[in-house]
Design goal:
With about 210 residues, the chain is mostly helical. It has 10 helices and no strands. It is elongated and about 90 Å long.
């Protein structure tokens, strides 16, 4: 703002060269500062689940500074929330490419891969994180427990309940669909659906 005032002052004195200098100085600072304001606004709107506004401002931030890894990470988080998962993966990869030693970027990538259903890549990335970020071993262990161990336990419990439900005649199909919808891992859901279908067929054929 000071540079704008100085530019106006020199303009009023007909000193156009200095007026031009200060106005250009003002714009050069604005170009470097405004993107951070836009990114901050994007994170606020992300926290409020106002994803369209969040996307608008993070795109403004990236336009002003396309080399900031934090901006790409924020963009990835927003895209994940609106289920544009492949785009989210591309954005978090850009963040990692720009800053390879930031474990939070890998954390976000793990969550995106998990939503996609690429469990093999989730396991591989968690192993990489465990080896590369030894100081953050607790974080990685908790992620493994949350995404892999507990998820498998939940699926085993669901399968038992589905098999139990299949032996009854009370709204069987609706109950099965409701149970399968609780599974976030898409590949696991596909596999479990196939297994349920085979089991259902064997139940029907044995009646």
């Amino acid at each position: 703002e000071l540079y704008f005032i100085l530019s106006e002052l020199y303009f009023s004195k007909k000193d156009l060269s200095k007026s031009e200098y200060f106005i250009l100085k003002a714009f050069s600072i604005a170009d470097s500062v405004y993107p951070f304001f836009y990114q901050k606004l994007a994170t606020i709107y992300l926290a409020q689940a106002e994803y369209e506004k969040a996307l608008y401002f993070i795109n403004r931030a990236l336009k002003g500074n396309p080399n900031n890894p934090i901006f790409y990470s924020t963009h990835a988080q927003i895209l994940k929330e609106v289920y544009r998962l492949q785009e989210a993966l591309e954005q978090i990869d850009k963040a990692i490419e720009l800053q390879k030693d930031n474990i939070s970027f890998y954390h976000h990538k793990v969550l995106i891969l998990y939503e996609i259903g690429d469990i093999d890549s989730v396991e591989a990335l968690l192993d990489f994180m465990q080896n590369s970020f030894e100081k953050n071993g607790k974080l990685v262990s908790n992620l493994k427990k949350q995404l892999l161990v507990q998820d498998k336990v939940n699926q085993d419990e669901l399968l038992k309940e589905i098999k139990s439900t299949l032996s009854q005649d009370n709204k069987v199909v609706c109950r099965i669909i409701n149970l399968l919808n609780f599974i976030k891992d898409r590949r696991a859901k596909k596999d479990l659906t196939k297994r349920v279908a085979y089991h259902a067929l064997s139940v029907i054929q044995s009646d």
